[in-house]
Amino acid sequence: MQYNSKVTLCDDGKYRWIYEINLFKNPMFYFLVLKIFLAIFLVGFVLSSVFDYLNWGAQKVVENLPFFGYCLLGIIAITALGYIIYAAIMGGKYTVEFEMDQNGFVHRQTSAQAKKAKKIGKTAMLGGAAAGNLGAISTGIAAQRTEMYTDFAMVKKVKALPSRNLIKVSEGLEHNQIYAQREDFDFVLNFILSHCANIKE
Question: What is the per-residue DSSP string for 32-64?
Fold first, then answer.
């Protein structure tokens, strides 16, 4: 099946197109990975602070703040370096194929990029497991997911970000996103909205 950048209605009744994201100009994956690490850091910080407070008082919590500050800076720096390496391996681009019909849409990395992403994911997951790093394991698992389907009947929220050519779609705990060129953006957004009967305002 051939894809092009313009949303195209194919003979089987499905709309298909391809979208390419510059990973250096649009570092969405960096922020995604950073959120995972920051969430784990926050849990560790809160648990440690509560333990210190209960055993040694508020002074101990204050004394440990510089340590956690350095940890936070380290997480940001290491995540940024990892993202740069990831972007370089992927050729500086994230290329995704979309298929959309009356029932839902598929967000899928191209086969060549999917193979690279899975290898990176496996490496990160194994490295994280060896180091006992839950953040790296989580990131590795996420990187291996190269295809995601969204059922319009399950969608609860749709958020449009025209300046980024992005439409975010939520099914409760499941989140997906769809990109379209500026000239096709309104069509795709209206198509999604008209087929999602269970959107909650």
Answer: HHHHHHHHHHHHHHHHHHHHHHHHH-HHHHHHH
Is the pLDDT at 200 greater than 50, yes or no? yes
CB 6 within 8 A of CB 168: no
Amino acid at site 64:
N
Would you say 6 and 184 are in contact if contact means Cβ atoms under 8 Å apart?
Answer: yes
Strand partners, 99: 16, 106
Handedness of CA 34, 36, 39, 43 (dihedral sign): negative
The torsion region of residue 78 among left (phi > 0), alpha (psi -120 to 50) and beta comes to alpha
68-71 contacts, C-beta under 8 A, 24 or more apart: 71/41
48 CB contacts (<8 Å, ≥6 apart)?
64, 68
Q: What is the pTM of this model?
A: 0.67
Phi, psi of 179 (to 5 degrees): -110, 150
How crowded is the C-beta side of 117, counted as CA atoms within 13 Å? 21
- The CA-CA-CA angle for residues 31, 45, 174, to 5°, reads 40
Q: Which residue has the tokens 């690490």?
A: 37
Q: Convert the pLDDT of each residue in 85-143 to its tens digit.
A: 878 887 888 888 999 999 999 998 876 655 655 555 554 554 444 445 544 444 444 44
Residue 197 has pLDDT above 80, yes or no: yes
Place of tokens 């089987």: 12
